Amino acid sequence: MNRRWAHAIVEALRAGGADCFVTSPGARNLPLLAVLADRPDMTILSCLDERAAGYLAVGWMRGHALRGGGPAPAVAVCTSGTAVLNLLPAVAEAREAGLPLVILSADRPPAEHGRGANQTIDQLGPLAPLLAAQRNLPLPAEAAWAGLADLVGQALEEALDAPGPLQLNVPFPEPLLAGAALDDSMPVRATSPRQVWPRTPLPAAELAWWREGPARVARGLVWACDLPRREDRLAARALAEHLDWPLLADAGSGLCRRVAVAARPPLLTQGEALLPELARADFVIQLGKRPVSRSLAAGLAGRPGLVVDEHPGVQDAAGAGWRRWRLSPAAGAASIMSGPPAQADQAWWTRLRRAAAEADLAQARALADPSWSEALVARRLALGLPPDWGFFVGNSLPVRLLDQWRPGLEHDLVLAANRGCSGIDGLLATAQGFQAGLARPVVALLGDLSLLHDLSSLALLAQRQPPLLLVLLNNQGGGIFRLHPASGRLPWSWAPHGLALAPAAAGLGLEARRLENIAQLEEVLADFRAAPRTLVVECVVDGADHGRRTAHARRRPLPAVPADTTRVWLHGFLGHPADWSALRAHLPPARRELAPLLPGHGARPASVPADLAGWVAWLREEMAGRGPLDLVGYSLGGRLALLAALAMPDQVVRLVLLGANPGLESGRERQTRRAGDEAWAERLEREGLAAFLPAWYAQPLFASLRERAPAGWVERRHEGHAASLAAVLRAVSPALQEDLWPRLAELPMPVLWAAGERDERYGGLMRRAAARTARGTFVEVKEAGHAIHLDSPQALAAALMDWWDATGKPPGDM
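Predicted structure:
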């Protein structure tokens, strides 16, 4: 009877949409475990520790939602007694996050309660205040059979409507596994799994209020806060574009994809730094729950606003008194977008963009210091993730690091965090559940105290071996408390522990490393991208460093571009300074211009530096005493200009890069490119330049150049020497260049990334690079190919003049 009863409960939950069951061992829950033991059609996760099991279920729901799978409930199955109480922290998180966590708790029969029997505690009362629904199911009995599926299904509907956690408490008499075998005659409630969260229709009066009031303001702001579902994140972007309002992205939103085009509403990721300008907003739409930054919430509380979130509780942490629509952010955005767009204040856009550029510049300068720090670890992790991989961020300091130091990227982050209660317990278990629900590799960034609170989940990690990179910030405890004005000067409040964390992981058989510099972290990230697996790294950082870097990252005015710059034109491989002549003919002359012949090129080639460091040293020597520089580089010249700008950021005041790749990101790419460049170099030496040139320019990359070849460009290339040019190929191969993608945000100067419309590969690279550059802009030149300056000089000249004009204005006029 127990097994048949358990089977009916499980099937009723399945019919209501439950798709993941997290089990913990026990005796009283044996009927449930027996039913789940052989169910290949369901996700079954096993966890020894009930406290971790609850968070594993929470994480699975977060991952499943971001995968686009909808709000499927997860079920935590536990035995009787204190096992249930260990689930309470996860239930609290689910309550505050609006997640339909189902606690399926086994219990002793009612007759055993109240007489001192073993493991007979109140399993309902402790959880009751945190639950959206609760049912104490009857003992297995034939008389109750017909109503069981309806009882379970109705309770699940209540939890989904809230949304919030549900407890089903199931007493099982002994013998626990005796009785009839399972058969197909047991009733199952015929309900369809929910595909979307319940949405309360928006009253017509509310929509009328919106259209007659907030929709008419000129300075509106969309504020994306904790958005746990993919559809809500897409809706936040769509709403901002529909209204032409700037989009302020909290770390909990995962939004950081920056489009480096001035005609689009700006994406703002550093709210605290921009608060003086944001506080000018006429109206704020907050999508989702509780923001990470309390100071930002307090700063915006004085503005009129609207909160759109489906959580059943009050969402007004700053006491702003904003109007509330209890809808999913996606549903609220859809209601607003059913009407006409608002009228945007373009001048406010400009001021916000300028303020964001000032904040980005300050961060770029603060991060140019390569010393090991918490901020650097957080940024490099965000920069190093493939776009479809997960990023789980712990509470306390890690999520604040992401909120403050999150870089602009060409893609959003599949980011999750436990922002319901904002606690530090159960985070490693949640990260593992997140990975299971997302079904992708995941990087988790946690603090040292968070791990010490959840050490049992290290054992879970060792057992499960998911593709998860666990990055631990060991700042000797309580890094966030160093920043608090009350505790910052009280070392005894920081919870210093003096413990090494990697050995604890290694002791459980996990692959673990202790890292002490950024180069080691980059190596680990590359290794994990190439071979995702279970890997633990402990980053030993100075806990006092974050406050110092934060002080250095305060906004500072953008420097004006000096009037006496020297414009420097750097040609590509096989090129010549005369390659720039057609382009320069369409431009007004600069005060001072220089077009050097790169080493190894020309009729009398200069000696070729042996490596890229030598090439940068050569350029620095050439530029010595020439004052501030406007660098323009194509292909090889562009890569050299980029390296030089990073090496001398105070001298390079503007940077134009045409078809320049910031770097190869994988060992396989570098290996392939190195072999290819060596083959070309050997061919050049073997066949000579005259035979080499037709083969080189037959590559698809130069198709547009072959069609629209300007006069004289081929003849100039015959002036070179094969041996010197082969040495150039070997010395400056992209395979030997540092991967500069993570360092693009360090560039403090305006940077124009340009590509031809027909150059599909480099067009994608240049867009991506512009998004990652603090003051980056992308320009696509119509009908042009890779060598834009040669096949479309007039169109490129027009784009350059527009950009130079915009970046050369006095700072207040931008």
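Summary: The CA atoms of residues 492 and 748 lie 39 Å apart.
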